[in-house]
What we know:
Pfam families: RecX_HTH1 (PF21982), RecX_HTH2 (PF02631), RecX_HTH3 (PF21981). InterPro entries: RecX_HTH_1st, RecX_HTH_2nd, RecX_HTH_3rd, Regulatory_RecX, WH-like_DNA-bd_sf. Belongs to the RecX family. Modulates RecA activity. One of its GO terms (biological process) is regulation of DNA repair. The chain is mainly alpha-helical and about 300 residues long. Among the domains are: about 110-150, no CATH class; about 155-225; about 245-310, no CATH class. Helices cover about 60% and strands about 5% of the residues. It is built from 14 helices and 3 strands. It has helices at about 30-35, 50-70, 80-85, 90-105, 110-120, 125-135, 140-150, 155-170, 180-190, 195-210, 220-225, 255-270, 280-290, 295-310, and strands spanning about 5-10, 15-20, 25-30. A 3-stranded antiparallel sheet has the order 1-2-3. The longest helix is centred in the first third of the chain and has 23 residues, at about 50-70.
Amino acid sequence: MSNIITKIEVQKRNKDRVNVYINEEFNFACSSELIYYHNLKKGKVIDENNLNDIIREDNYIKAKGYALKYIEKSLKTETQVKEKLYSKEYNEDTVDRVIKFLKDYDFIDDNKYCDMYIREKLNIYGRNKIKYALLNKGIEESIVIEKINNIDEEKEKKIAYKLAEKKYKIMILREKDKFKIYKKIWAYIISRGYNSNIAEWIINEIKSNEALYKDNNICLDEQDIKSNKNIENNIKDENLDKFHNNSSFNSKNNNYKENIDILARKRYDIIIKSEDDKNKIYRRLSNYLLRRGFSFEEVKKSTNRILYGIE
């Protein structure tokens, strides 16, 4: 039996779409433009191949319209658009065609998205947080790394300092313990996506400018970081390069250097059994010695002697 179009009617709720009846029964709905494109009319015989072509084109038109509406309010990444289309159960062929259309007409561009996102977020976040946010949006790692490496380091430091300074001025109104203030400032900066070098530089700058910590008693202990419930984003202790500067720990014993090196060597031999990354070894060894009460400067010197054979 031939497939004969017996009725074509415009949908009541959407004038841009029509219902097509074949052999007196509803068969499919499609965009009205396909009616003219394929010259569909009452009494025309339509075979399965033509029918499939029409349905495929209609899916593409619907998917394209949906994608354009999705990106209307804000830029999206290629992956975000794909995921949205797949969530509407469009097949891979349709999604690929839509993505090609959007890229050809510059509706989506992951390079431009990165530039826009970095400009927008650089005033509140550091490169680490920006990097992981972009990766989570599905942008290729090579693109993200290239863009992140182009961030001006001095500009990043200045922004981080302003954020920390603002936080500090609020904290000193309700917190008198300088030890806690510095620990929270450090954690805050790390949670914002700045690296430990910037965090350490900021604390030193604030300390110098505000004439705080006259006793030079600054310490960030690994266990303290874990127990601090106010730290944002569950900061991982391995991302913090702790520092310690407590003059009360300075030993007058002539065997001080020898004693710390003996302790450091024993701990080093234990650590290397499960770790071969020198940076991680350095952090773990430093943390261990700091928790034993040695000063930051002596820990740094001893760790360098053990790992690199230098003073």
